[in-house]
Amino acid sequence: xxxxxxxxxxxxxxxxxxxxxxxxxxxxxxxxxxxxxxxxxxxxxxxxxxxxxxxxxxxxxxxxxxxxxxxxxxxxxxxxxxxxxxxxxxxxxxxxxxxxxxxxxxxxxxxxxxxxxxxxxxxxxxxxxxxxxxxxxxxxxxxxxxxxxxxxxxxxxxxxxxxxxxxxxxxxxxxxxxxxxxxxxxxxxxxxxxxxxxxxxxxxxxxxxxxxxxxxxxxxxxxxxxxxxxxxxxxxxxxxxxxxxxxxxxxxxxxxxxxxxxxxxxxxxxxxxxxxxxxxxxxxxxxxxxxxxxxxxxxxxxxxxxxxxxxxxxxxxxxxxxxxxx
Length: 326
What we know:
- By secondary structure, the protein is of the alpha/beta class.
- Helices cover 44% and strands 18% of the residues.
């Protein structure tokens, strides 16, 4: 921009000045600094795979380097606390999942408010969950499994990846909706849980569809029904649990972007637009399809409402299941 007099601006100068003023402050002041995306989960998890598949496109959309940082611990609380305490300058974002709104109901003490201490940016999409049984269980669909559990109360075990996880609550939700009981066996992660399901140490469990499909195809585990509100393109012949007689049942593993509280409206728009652009990129869309994820980036307003509704829903379920951690 070449301004010769403060009182005589050319049309080009005016357009350039208007464009500069429209840019978010962080983009003007710190364009060379990386954007840090904190994942409150371990490397190799489903959300981690999503973030790393999208990272190059996110960097292009933001026009800045993007760094993915895994900070697992305490069911996601450790990493989320880092985001909550970060400066609201647009340089630190978090990618969270269901546990972000489950934890306040599960843990007696929280270092932050999962709603008020964060700025919702977008619920980007979801990973389908599937209800599985060991092949020795004589049930091939939901009605047969419900009948089996009603005929033998507490005669079967259902596994989870840990107390208070979305996998645990998905199982509790099924038992509640069907009016049946089974003994809950918590594991430290999905890996050992699936291993024992295949071995027949536990008979029933909920697993993310991408992780379950190899075992479904090999016959090591049998799919009884999809947990989400609609069938998955990755398994179109597998009916939902709702279709099979439990219309109130619906749960999926969603993932979303958040920032610290008091993130400016300009930074929220900038982050939302960059995320939507990145996840629409052909290479990212293909990666999401292969992972079995359904992508539908929502608005910040939709994310805020969704967080509150999900928090209320899980709080009621946690209370009913009496799940409380220190």
